[in-house]
Amino acid sequence: MKDLLPILLLVSLSLAGTIKPANRASLGPIGTSSPNILVGGTVQNDAPPLSSFFKDLKGPQVSLQWMVGFICCASREGTAAGPFPYESSLDGYVPTQLDWRASFSEHGGGFDGHKATAFDTQTVTVRYFQGNSSMTAHLVPGSPYMTFQYKSATPLLTTLNGGIESLNGKALSGGNTVSDRGTKFTVIDTKGTTYLIYSDRSIKLTAKAENNNQGTLSAGGKFTGILRLVMLRDPNHQALLDAHSTVYPVSVSQCYSISGDSGTVTFKWQTKGTGDLLMLTWPHHREVLQSPHSPGPSSLNYLTLKGWMYPTLGNTWRLTYKLSAITWNAPRDVDPSCKESVVNGLKYEVDQLDPSKAPAPNEFYYWGGTLAAKSRLALIADHVGSKDLIEPVIKYLKASFDGWFSATNKALPAYETTWGGVISKEGATNVWVDYGNGYFNDHHFHYGYFLHIAAVIAKYDPSWLAQHREYVTFFARDIINPSSDDPFFPITRCLDWFAGHSWASGIANGAGSRDQESVGEAVNGYYGAMLWATVALDQEHANFARLLVAMEQHAARVYWHLYPSAGKDDPTNPYPEAEFRDLITVGNVMDWQTGAWLFWGAEKVQIAAIQILPVTPVNEVMYDAEWVNNVFSYTMPELTSASYADSWKSVIYAAYSNANPQEAAAWSANLSDWGSGNTYMNELYFISTRPNQNGQPICAASGKYIVSAANGGQLSASSNSSNDADIFSSVYVPNAGTLQLAKNNQYVTADQSGAYSLSAARAIADTWERFIIRQKIGESQGVYSIKAASNGKYVRVVGDGTLVNDGAVENDATGFRLIKA
């Protein structure tokens, strides 16, 4: 006989479910048309959901949340979650631990002997059956109890993390059995953990101590009724658990409402039994839960990876989020001190866009990040009044984007029929294509960029919108569908409504543990969808996307941002360990572990930046002052080192500007690379539109004379007279400039090694001939540092007076004044 249902009471794989056919939201579907016009046609993933699990149910269009382990492919084992009471630790690693397994003696262990009988946006009901005997498990995230409904079956509960020491105070020893009859049982295992078992009618249970590591509880015969199992952490918790053991949740419905800049999600659990429903809240719930009826935290609590869960009573929750009013651009104009630089930089970057060289869309992720950054140029041009620069950007975007409509394109969007979603056709059977897009990994990351680009094109080209509205909308339906009335897509594919944030994991690797590294890109997924809904759909669905943005940003602040100042016992602090909070930023939130690390990088700037990017106007809400100040200080050793990429530094400076725009502008002015998902212009625009509390200009204006050797070569600081000084002209390039010696028309060059003196010896200006010249921090107005783009090192005057680019930090740089000739 095979036991069936692992119960995780100390550690769980908590995700959260969705979908059919139970409860519909108050908002109708975005659309119901078939995605048969996608150029990739239809395709089947090679890891389809298990049809036996959905026998007799409509669907499946299933979101990839906590129940996916039941549903997917070869894993064939579902892990159900109780109240998720497991602890976080400094290293962020917590191995899963199974405490009990529930089944019934009649079951033969066959996999086909279980199926879902109902599921919705959070819960799943699973029935295990053999002949006329069955056990139904009501699996509801947030319930402190595990609830099992038996029908003509003999309950069998097996301990998995220690043997049984006693049943109702009757001690066991190896191989012995003790029995008791009643409606409530107290079980203590050999690890000293106490569990309570409630029955809705009298039942006889026999405890057997198999050994010190395992024991069993079995009924004396077939039973029809309810058993509930809960862990008792503290004897003082028993009164509350006893009082509410007679009512249990079986499903949940949810609806959404928007009023101005306020959005409310309502959860309503359907229950059986009598009394007030007892549920548990996480920190993010407690920040937004309206008028809760909550007993004191000391009456019941469990420490989990998301902090302490505390009790609340009632079967209806109303969670109200503050919505941002930001859409296309920043809510403030460009600071006057930055306006000229913004206009010049905008023109320069737009001039570089050649539609004939626009990239072919051969994958979603990198293409999307790059093109979305370019699309912001049109919006910035609109904001600053450079209307003539909008059309060149739109032509460039269309030249690239239109590849998605071509059957000859390398990456073909196709409709995957077994899970219900848009994927890269090539990735349907190859998990390595586009980060597992074909296995539904990262869809909100990928399609947020996609929809942002499409929205910008549509905003300025109504005819393009009219032609492609339905096609592009399939991508929006893939990630923000609000309704079970859409027959082709699940409700909010990535969002876990109870956890309060999205998961990036799809069904790769047997639909293993849920995780999300880049919460910034999760926000961007819903932001891109909001922009598309604003221009192409309707206000109701745009507001729904605003709500999703607000939820994800709220979760970012609660679970990804770490605050050393938070109190250990603060009910909204998910991480009581001070050492963990000192790490400032969580890199990866998973369903079974959380830590300040990434799958692909270990640098502090990487861990922080991936939670910040992409830099868009809507994210000023997420860049709160305390956190960005902490990030800036924590990453300072890497920000001041040339060994770390400017692309990561750029987004940290941008976020930092939300609290300190002047200082951020000075640091940002030293950058020479912004990566593929950001641009000089986007960086400067964001910094120049920040809240400016002190009212000072954000972009501040702004010895020996420099002479060259007789042959126009090596430069040195060696003249005491301006009459002997050489004259140089400068030409603007983004965030930098070139220096051309007037007497020989040669450009100043800086060797990449930093081992040689600067010289005016190049006929053509390339990377080695670019310099970042900025007001030197800490010096008087008009004193500049010069940084060579060739190696990111600062120019300094060495002992013999020559200029060498080998300064590691700005403090090493010599200060220079620029005097008009």
TrEMBL record:
Its main location: cytoplasm. GO terms for cellular component: cytoplasm. It is an enzyme of class 3 (hydrolase). It is found in: Cytoplasm. Residues 704-807 form the Fascin-like domain. The keyword NADP does not apply. Residues 114-325 form the Glycosyl hydrolase family 81 N-terminal domain. It catalyses: Hydrolysis of (1->3)-beta-D-glucosidic linkages in (1->3)-beta-D-glucans. Residues 1-16 form the signal peptide. One of its GO terms (molecular function) is actin filament binding. One of its GO terms (biological process) is polysaccharide catabolic process. Keywords: Actin-binding, Carbohydrate metabolism, Cell wall biogenesis/degradation, Cytoplasm, Glycosidase, Hydrolase, Polysaccharide degradation, Signal. Its EC number is 3.2.1.39. Residues 339-669 form the Glycosyl hydrolase family 81 C-terminal domain. Pfam families: Fascin (PF06268), Glyco_hydro81C (PF17652), Glyco_hydro_81 (PF03639). CDD domains: beta-trefoil_FSCN-like. Belongs to the glycosyl hydrolase 81 family. This is glucan endo-1,3-beta-D-glucosidase. The lineage of its organism: Eukaryota, Fungi, Dikarya, Ascomycota, Pezizomycotina.
